[in-house]
Design brief:
alpha+beta, 5-stranded antiparallel beta sheet, 3-stranded mixed beta sheet, 4 helices, 25% helix
Length: 178
């Protein structure tokens, strides 16, 4: 079980930074690290395209070895944990300014922190981003377009939104039909 002497955000950021060099040796980037209960999930991506299962398997060994030498992992997980290494899938987690910058023009879903006054769930398109702010054009069916600047520290969770192509419908199995 995860010890709570460190915040989830701090742990995740420290592990992303610590694992980045290992992932880079494989031509991959660490997109996110999720620590839930006894599970430590590392989400990797290849900016050039999809990652197949053989690359995930190779990355699992490299990431496991890198985690074995990190003291913070022993402090947070004093007992055993389950390591899951995966690719992000269709919808990408956005955690850092460079993630937002990479997906300028993409549709996103944001959940803002509890201390933010007003609407806390937003959907829109990224117009721009820097180290402190993300500019979003909100998804409204009426004009004029509502553009908001949101401070990075006010974002609790963000992800890109995959939209099915016109005429396609998603069914429960995740397959597409026309």
């Amino acid at each position: 079980m995860i010890k709570k002497d460190i915040s989830y955000e701090e742990l995740s950021n420290r592990l992303i930074d610590a694992l980045a060099p290992s992932a880079q040796t494989l031509g991959l980037q660490v997109l996110d690290v999720n620590c839930t209960g006894d599970v430590l999930q590392v989400v990797l991506e290849d900016p050039a395209g999809p990652i197949d299962s053989s690359r995930i398997e190779a990355a699992s060994s490299v990431i496991s070895a890198a985690l074995d030498i990190l003291q913070i992992v022993d402090e947070v997980y004093p007992h055993s944990y389950v390591l899951e290494v995966s690719s992000p899938g269709l919808e990408r987690i956005l955690r850092r300014p460079e993630h937002y910058q990479r997906f300028v023009g993409a549709k996103v879903s944001l959940k803002l922190n509890a201390n933010v006054v007003g609407e806390r769930r937003l959907v829109g398109w990224i117009l721009g981003a820097n180290e402190q702010l993300v500019t979003i054009a909100l998804d409204f069916p009426v004009a004029p377009v509502d553009v908001r600047e949101i401070r990075m520290i006010d974002i609790f969770r963000a992800r890109t939104v995959f939209e099915w192509a016109s005429g396609e419908k998603k069914i429960d199995s995740g397959k597409r039909i026309k």
